[in-house]
Amino acid sequence: MDDEKKSGKQELRERFIEMRASGRSFASIAEELEISKTTLISWSKGLVIEIKNARSLRLDELYQRFIVAKERRIEAFGKRLEAILTELDKRDLAEIETEKLLMLALRYGDSLRTEYEPLTLAEKGEGPDLSFLDEYTNTWKA
Question: Is residue 45 within 8 Å of 54, Cβ to Cβ?
């Protein structure tokens, strides 16, 4: 078999691996590549690891695209929220009815309470465990 035929067969196998990794059926691959279904089944037995790896790489790529898309959505929501808050800062609250203003005050108060973290000071003797340093510092001479 000459180099050109080997190269062509290798290219067909690589296309087959990609098609199987994407979930295509043997029948549809056989039709597109013009290779018998039995030949493709035989190839798949010898290329199990390659197909599995190609599928994993494909899923990883899709996952990365999803993560990037999710980050973009979060960033867009954050920018929109920032724009809304900036606009609210420009507004005169004198236009708001007393009842609605009171409800807003209560909601903001609740929001502040959920954000609040009480200050806790450590007592003498409390703090991080640094006992592991004892074995080193006991050997130090002044």
Answer: no
CA gap 27, 29 in Å, rounded: 5
pLDDT per residue as tens digits for the range 55-108? 999 888 888 888 888 888 888 887 887 887 788 788 787 888 888 888 888 887
* Structure tokens belonging to residue 4: 């050109």
Chain segment 109-122, per-residue pLDDT in tens? 787 777 777 777 77
The answer to whether the CB of 47 falls within 8 A of the CB of 16 is: yes
Residue that the structure tokens 């708001």 belong to? 96
Q: How far apart are CA 26 and CA 5, in angstroms?
A: 23
Instruction: Indicate the pTM of the whole model.
Output: 0.47
For the chain, give every domain's residue range: 10-106
Q: With contact defined as beta carbons under 8 Å apart, do 61 and 55 qualify?
A: no
Location of structure tokens 């010898």: 46
Length reported for the chain: 142
Non-local (6+) Cβ contacts of 101 within 8 A are 93
Residues 29, 16 contacting (CB under 8 angstroms) = yes
pLDDT the model gives residue 142: 45
Contact 17, 47 (CB under 8 A): yes
